[in-house]
TrEMBL record:
Residues 30-544 form the Major facilitator superfamily (MFS) profile domain. One of its GO terms (molecular function) is myo-inositol:proton symporter activity. The chain crosses the membrane at residues 30-55, 67-87, 99-118, 124-145, 157-179, 185-207, 274-297, 312-335, 342-361, 451-477, 489-510, 522-540. This is Probable inositol transporter 2 isoform X1. It is found in: Membrane. Keywords: Membrane, Transmembrane, Transmembrane helix, Transport. InterPro entries: MFS_dom, MFS_sugar_transport-like, MFS_trans_sf, Myo-inositol_Transporter, Sugar/inositol_transpt, Sugar_transporter_CS. The keyword Signal does not apply. GO terms for biological process: myo-inositol transport; transmembrane transport. The keyword Transmembrane applies. Its main location: membrane. It comes from Gossypium hirsutum.
Length: 578
């Protein structure tokens, strides 16, 4: 409840959430219908990573230009920045339900444009439309779920949005694999995204507006009707009373229930401290590198030495499955262990995993197979020109071959063992087919390596640790940490910060990888993860089981929150005593 006290949140929340299946399915219906916005978010993140492999094959200009690849990935993020920024204002003005309907429409239109795009330019336009929809849905879905959830299971229900994000990513890899042999490959991959958007549009037409938004707008009777469907009979009247007192206090403080501006927001201590924690979490969620892994996981798998597109997609499916599993773990532990402890465990594991990945890629790049003049001369008239003219060709290895650029070159492995010296040849489809006909492997994005499986283990560990904590908690915290009158605006600010960070990381990863190497890139993410861990320890409060009004009181009382290991929170304990 908004103002109720729950002494057994940590032990019963998950069971309570499961019991809703038969005791009050209406609440689950609200949560999962709104959570489809998370599914759209996740599907778009995952699908482009696989589709990009085939877009590069279809559009040679994309294959040649790293900036076009990054633009196809990142323009959706640019659209999401605008969608999240506008979505915060729209949420407070028009309501959560209407914003989700608009998001679904934009996503559907974007999916149709992408599927029919004749070239890279229109494909990028479609990505922008999809991004607008994803940006709006990314901050509206958890907000809607939070405001339609009893306090003691709020974390678990908002975690369903995180589960559907990771579920969407897993689904996207399944769809990618399903269409690898179909005519049009990537067009089916991106076009299928329109169906969940259409489904959510229909479901949201049948669902009500957020009861708290209705009450805030003076539509008390409509809000009470919905609250009576959400809460048990013995709790609902107290919930209505608490909500009434909360809104009246806000109106008294503001002078008007509609008056709201940035200056007032920054002058409010609880909001300012909430924004520090909320925006910080959203920024660090991206800068520890998660969407580098999700956007480019097939590419990373190929960098680890797995040549086939299909193999790269299949192995990436494993990471997406682990991500979905991690979000299920989050649903169980979020109201049991607490937000802050989960974040600290998560980031500690992320730091270790990124250290492993950095080490593995260092070994991969410094111990790649040599280029053999005998193997290369086996293929007549297609030798890489840079290799032929090099004075130190005897020192060339696979990585040196792949860096040649006039024209691009590829590495054709030895037919007996991919780790033995191979041939450095001109990179095109004809040469690729010649290499494959001799039962050799063809490499253009990474080199054969005996450490490839270690890279997969590092990726798996990264996902296992990231998903339950840093994957879910930032969205949960931002759905509950702000006062009602500022919730839409602050949620929009935090989501916008997330998407701007997402854009920076997505747009720079391939360029950074080419400039300093994959190993150093992951090492940078590791250093940022250490900074994120310190930030969580100092600035992020524990909100487990606290009614939303109590969270506001706690933030007003203190700015720093070191003692994450203590059970309970002072404001909460005080309210129990009274």
């Amino acid at each position: 409840m908004e103002g109720g006290i729950h002494t057994s949140t940590d032990t019963s929340a998950f069971k309570e959430c499961l019991s809703l299946t038969w005791r009050n399915p209406y609440v689950l219906r609200l949560a999962f219908s709104a959570g489809i916005g998370g599914l759209l978010f996740g599907y778009d993140t995952g699908v482009i990573s696989g589709a990009l492999l085939y877009i590069r094959d279809d559009f040679k200009s994309v294959d040649r230009k790293t900036v076009l690849q990054e633009s196809i990935v990142s323009m959706a993020v640019a659209g999401a920045i605008i969608g999240a920024a506008v979505g915060g204002w729209m949420n407070d003005r028009f309501g959560r339900r209407r914003v989700l309907l608009i998001a679904d429409f934009l996503f559907f239109v974007g999916a149709v444009i992408m599927a029919s795009a004749p070239g890279a330019a229109l494909l990028i336009v479609g990505r922008i439309f999809v991004g607008l929809g994803v940006g709006m849905a990314s901050m509206t879905s958890p907000l809607y779920i939070s405001e339609a959830s009893p306090a003691k299971i709020r974390g678990a229900l908002v975690s369903t949005n995180g589960f559907l994000i990771t579920g969407g990513q897993f689904l996207s890899y399944l769809i990618n694999l399903a269409f690898t042999k179909a005519p049009g490959t990537w067009r089916w991959m991106v076009g299928v995204a329109g169906f969940p958007a259409l489904l959510q549009f229909i479901l949201m037409l049948l669902l009500p507006e957020s009861p708290r938004w209705l009450y805030r707008k003076g539509r008390e009777e409509a809000a009470k009707v919905i609250l009576r469907k959400i809460y048990p009979a013995h709790e609902v009247e107290q919930e209505i009373q608490d909500l009434k007192e909360s809104v009246e206090a806000e109106i008294k403080e503001e002078g008007s229930s509609e008056k709201m501006n940035i200056i007032k927001l920054l002058k409010t201590k609880a909001v300012r401290r909430g924004l520090t924690a909320g925006v910080g979490l959203q920024v660090f969620q991206q800068f520890v590198g998660i969407n580098t892994v999700m956007y480019y996981s097939p590419t990373i798998v190929q960098l680890a030495g797995f040549a086939s597109n299909r193999t790269a997609l299949l192995l990436s499916l494993v990471t997406a499955g682990l991500n979905a599993f991690g979000s299920i773990v989050s649903i169980y532990f979020i109201d049991r262990t607490g937000r802050k402890k989960l974040l600290i465990i998560s980031l500690t594991g992320v730091v270790v995993s990124l250290g492993v990945l950095s080490g593995v890629f260092h070994e991969t790049t410094t111990h790649s197979p040599m280029v053999s003049r005998v193997e290369t001369s086996h293929f007549s008239n297609i030798t890489c020109p840079d290799y032929s003219s090099a004075l130190n060709s005897g020192a060339w290895d696979c990585m040196t071959c792949l860096k040649a650029s006039s024209p691009d070159c590829g590495f054709c492995s030895s037919p007996t063992n991919k780790l033995l010296p191979g041939a450095c040849l001109i990179s095109n489809d004809t040469v690729k087919d010649m290499c494959h006909k001799e039962t050799r492997l063809w490499y253009t994005r990474g080199c054969p390596s005996k450490y490839g499986w270690l890279a997969l283990i590092g990726l798996a560990l990264y996902i296992i640790f990231f998903s339950p904590g840093m994957g879910s908690v930032p969205w949960i915290m931002n759905s509950e940490i702000y006062p009602l009158r500022f919730r839409g605006l602050c949620g929009g600010i935090a989501a916008t910060a997330n998407w701007i960070s997402n854009l920076i990381v997505g747009q720079s990863f391939l360029s950074l990888k080419e400039a300093i190497g994959t190993s150093w890139t992951f090492l940078i993410f590791g250093v940022i993860s250490v900074m994120a861990l310190l930030f969580v320890i100092i600035y992020v409060p524990e909100t487990k089981g606290l009614p939303i009004e109590e969270i506001e009181k706690m933030l007003e009382g203190r700015a720093l929150h070191y003692k994450f290991w203590e059970k309970g929170n002072k404001p909460h304990e005080k309210s129990q005593a009274t």
